[in-house]
Amino acid sequence: xxxxxxxxxxxxxxxxxxxxxxxxxxxxxxxxxxxxxxxxxxxxxxxxxxxxxxxxxxxxxxxxxxxxxxxxxxxxxxxxxxxxxxxxxxxxxxxxxxxxxxxxxxxxxxxxxxxxxxxxxxxxxxxxxxxxxxxxxxxxxxxxxxxxxxxxxxxxx
Length: 157
Hints:
Helices cover 13% and strands 52% of the residues. The chain is mainly beta. It has a single domain, classed as Beta Barrel (Lipocalin).
């Protein structure tokens, strides 16, 4: 009986000492991250080519265990979203608005649930990226215009 109790105790200690690298992606993402910068690029060549890198050191993202995400900037709550991990390499942000509206009306060009590729995830650094290409037809232009959107967010602990 004592051997079973000893084995159970050793198993519990071994599980609690599990290395960070062996933890789930959800575990690694959970917590408060501080912004480094955000890069946003829109291209609709030859009409538009815009690239903007914005420093975000006063912004915090709290990825909560319950799947909630609160974005806060200098004490002001900017957004409240949801998040999840798909296939250990995709961060899904739910209820996100990139602010890219259809110039012809009819709402946003991007869906409210966006899948970001996780580029880097360590104890200190979290970088993820969203890319998409949309084909839009404008009045008076005989061929569709391809609009490419890219967003890269960089965070640190």
